[in-house]
Amino acid sequence: MVFDTVRAHAHEAGVATPYLLCNLDVIDAKMARFRAALPGVVPYYAMKANPDARVLERVKALGGHFEIASIYELDMLMACGVDPREVFFSNPIKPLEAIRRAWEAGVSTMAVDDLDEIAKIASVSPEIKTYLRLETSNTGSDWPLTGKFGASTAEAIEIIDHCAERGLPLIGLTFHVGSQCRNLDNWHSGIENAKLLFARMREAGLTPTLLNLGGGFPIQHTRPMPTIEEIGATVHKSLDGLEPEITVIAEPGRYLVGDSAWMVTRVVGTATRKGHRWIYLDVGCFTGLAETLEKFDYELLTERHGPETPMSVAGPSCDTADTLFDEKMLPEDLSAGDFVLIPNAGAYTTAYASTFNGFPLPVMVMLGA
Q1: Same structural domain, 181 and 279
Q2: Strand, coil or helix: what is 347?
Q3: What is the distance of C-alpha 147 from the center of its chain?
């Protein structure tokens, strides 16, 4: 049925490949499932995963909140009618002008992980509420996010004492378990560490009111991942004993939108080099599949039924980095002009895309539109 829909768009609607074919109803289902698995945890959509206005409007209609990484993302949300007072600025390091503009627009809660950032925020307004990003285990995540952000325990204690001494409103803690996290213990250890530091905050005279579980909630992809229900059970158990005045939020991004869309592409050419088969698509790492540069795997679906053989799969640009897969089992009769569908392409595809080499950005087409 999906290929029938693809052909209808190609021939009737005149949509050229590559494009994303999106079903917004999937986002409804994923939001409902998230809330059922994590009752009491408020979802703040990580809009960097897919900032398409129609996605943002659907999340808003579902009662979701938003977290941003830049002032430009805030502008997009405001254009969709989102109240800035309900937005969290989760990038731990922000330009001074972005802090000022966000504060003036109504954003009052921002992430930090360093004393320099706290000083920068306080220079804009000492009334801006902050929450401290902690380093935590990323073991078992497809993309560990440690190193660039996250305060160590010793650094966190220094930041807590600094804010307490100066009367700055440090209100909470956050961590990130790593993208596509396969290790349930990362959530457990992150929450347990936060509990210890909440106690330190109280000892210092601060009143914690926020725990942000961050992102990392995986989609079911090409290898087994914990379900949101399994993650929810771990989180629920770990949160036991947390003071009721502490609001718990999370930042699902890929989880909400990743499996809402297929990338629709075509084979633009084939070649045999030293006895090895190559397939070239009209989408590549620069035009929507940037995560393949980090060895993110995708399933490729075709309408061909011939015997499968290992093939290299490349994008359309002249850059050798635009080799998506070195060995992908595909039908050996795959030919130029054939459609190829790539599931689970709703996150970090169009958001990453560029027009390198002059190739157009993939548009996003709504199913049924």
Answers
A1: no
A2: coil
A3: 18
Range of the domain at 97: 51-252
Domain boundary among 252, 282, 309: 252
pLDDT tens for the chain, 369 residues: list them.
678 877 777 666 678 899 999 999 999 999 999 999 999 999 999 999 999 999 999 999 999 999 999 999 999 999 999 999 999 999 999 999 999 999 999 999 999 999 999 999 999 999 999 999 999 989 988 878 888 999 999 999 999 999 999 999 999 999 999 999 999 999 999 999 999 999 999 999 999 999 999 999 999 888 889 999 999 999 999 999 999 999 999 999 999 999 999 999 999 999 999 999 999 999 999 999 999 998 899 999 999 999 999 999 999 999 999 999 999 999 999 999 999 999 999 999 999 999 999 999 999 998 865
Residues 225 and 333 in one domain: no
329 DSSP assignment: E
Backbone angles phi, psi at 205, to 5 degrees: 100, 5
Q: Is 30 a domain residue?
A: no
Look at the chain and count its residues: 369
- Looking at the fold, whether 143 and 192 belong to one and the same domain comes out as yes
Is the Cα dihedral 77, 81, 84, 87 positive or negative? Answer: negative
Q: What's the CA gap between 161 and 69, in Å, rounded?
A: 26
CA dist 344 and 259 (Å) reads 4
pTM above 0.90, yes or no: yes
Q: In this structure, is residue 16 part of a structural domain?
A: yes
